[in-house]
Amino acid sequence: YTADEGQLALAADTDKDGIPDYYEALFGLNGEDASDASAVSLDVNGRYTNLEMYLHWLGKDIVAEQNKNGTYTKL
Q: What is the pLDDT of residues 9-56, one digit of tens each?
C-alpha cells in the first residue's frame, strides 16, 4: 500500500496507544497520554475502553450499511 502525506498525517499516533491523533482530538482525548486508551471515558455506560470505542467507530459505517432496513430488538 502507498499513502500520501495527508493520509499519513491521519495515521499519526503521538502517544503510541493505538488511537490516532485525529480521533483523540475529535473526541477530546489527550494525544500525548497513552493511558487514555484503557480508560472508559467515551462509553457512557462504562463498558468499553476508549481503544475499543475507536475500533467500533472504524466499523460503524459498514455495520450501518449491513443493517439498512433491518430491525433492532433492545435486550
A: 889 999 999 999 999 999 999 999 999 999 999 999 999 999 999 999
CA distances from 64 to 31, 56, 74, 75 (A): 28, 12, 16, 19
Q: How many angstroms separate the CA atoms of 26 and 63, rounded?
A: 21
CB of 20 within 8 A of CB of 14?
Answer: no
C-alpha cell at 70: 433491518
Tell me how far apart the alpha carbons of residues 2 and 15 are, in angstroms, rounded to a whole number.
23
Reported pTM: 0.78
DSSP 12-66: --TT-SSS-HHHHHHTT--TT-GGGGS--SS-TTS-S-HHHHHHHHHTHHHHHHH
